[in-house]
Structures are given as C-alpha cells and as structure tokens.
Design a protein that fits this description.
Radius of gyration: 30 Å
Shape: rod-shaped
Largest sheet: none
Helix content: over 70%
Number of strands: 0
Order of helices and strands: HHH
Length: about 90
C-alpha cells in the first residue's frame, strides 16, 4: 500500500506555514517516516518486498504440509487400529 502525505503536511514541512491547519511535529515526523521508502531509490525496499513475498509463500507451504501431515497421521492411526483388530485373538479374521 502506497502511503502519501497530505498536501498540508508537505507544505508544513517546507516551512510554508498555514494559518488554518496546525499539525504537530510528532505527527509530521510519523507521516514522513511512512513515506521514506517511496522517496528513497534503493534496492533495499524492493528486496524487502520480495522477502515478504517469499516468507508468505513459505508459510503457506508450511501450513499445507502440516495439514497433510495431520491427515497422514490420522490415516496411519486408522491402519494401526484396523491391524490391531484383525490381529486380536477374538477376531473372526484370526
């Protein structure tokens, strides 16, 4: 999401003071910091975006593998139970 500063805030930072709009220095600082990545020419911003995408994809894959693992464990438990029933001395299959 691209974050832009309000026009009044930009004017305030340029020392073009407005009589109608008064923002605090703290507020202006926070707003300016939000826009730094869009004002900076750097590979860092691009790489951070790519890193976040890779992390998201990895987390999705981990979730998928965890769900598959749970399903396989349940299936294995079912097979073990079936084998136990078949192997029991009172089973009609013995």
């Amino acid at each position: 999401m691209i974050s832009y500063m309000r026009g009044e805030d930009v004017e305030r930072l340029k020392k073009h003071l407005s009589n109608y709009y008064k923002s605090t220095d703290e507020y202006l600082s926070k707003e300016y910091i939000k826009t730094i990545p869009y004002l900076t020419i750097s590979e860092t911003v691009e790489l951070m975006g790519k890193l976040q995408e890779v992390i998201k994809e990895r987390n999705e894959k981990i979730g998928e593998l965890e769900r598959e693992n749970i399903s396989l464990r349940r299936e294995l438990e079912g097979i073990k139970e079936h084998r136990r029933i078949i192997s029991s001395p009172t089973s009609r299959w013995s």
